[in-house]
Specification:
single chain; mainly alpha; two-stranded antiparallel sheet; 6 helices; 34% helix
Length: 166
């Protein structure tokens, strides 16, 4: 029910909730939009836009202003419980350019003492150009045997491949 109206206000959307939270904070502290804007060092127009509807403001602006009022955004599950634990590979695994791996790929760490993923061995370790750093993570299933160098890659009874630079 709407307060004092006797009417059902209906569902409140997220952008409206941001505005209501900011208005409640201002009301509680007796601040005008201008005074509040000066307090949190944003333009008064930003406060007005956030209070009207936060859907046209950047997420960074919404989070920053809410944080200064003691509110926070959270990712919640279907039961409304904040999600605080994530898969470790989503948190730390990056390719050599610093990007996250695609979500649909399984990511494995490259174990110390192992040569590395096949693509790295073929294109960089055994390739003719400069060898980039061995990756720390890969989406290619790692070798199941210990590989100490090019001689371990030789076919049975065959010559090992030439090492880089020889």
């Amino acid at each position: 029910m709407g307060q004092g109206t006797g009417q059902d206000a209906g569902p409140v959307t997220f952008p409206e909730q941001v505005g209501l939270a900011l208005r409640a904070y201002r009301r509680e502290h007796g601040l005008s939009q201008r005074a509040f804007a000066q307090l949190i060092t944003v333009p008064q127009a930003t406060v007005a836009r956030l209070e009207r509807s936060a859907d046209r403001c950047s997420l960074a602006t919404v989070c920053s202003v809410l944080a200064r009022t003691g509110y926070a955004l959270a990712v919640v599950d279907g039961d409304g419980v904040p999600v605080t634990e994530w898969d470790v590979t989503d948190l730390v695994a990056r390719d050599r350019s610093g990007r996250r791996f695609p979500a649909h790929r399984t990511v494995w760490p490259v174990e110390p003492g192992r040569l590395g993923p096949v693509w790295w061995i073929l294109h960089e370790y055994l390739g003719t150009g400069p060898c980039g750093p061995q990756p720390e993570w890969t989406t290619v299933q790692p070798f199941r045997y210990r590989c100490r160098g090019p001689s371990d890659l030789a076919p049975p009874g065959g010559e090992p491949p030439a090492s880089p630079g020889s």
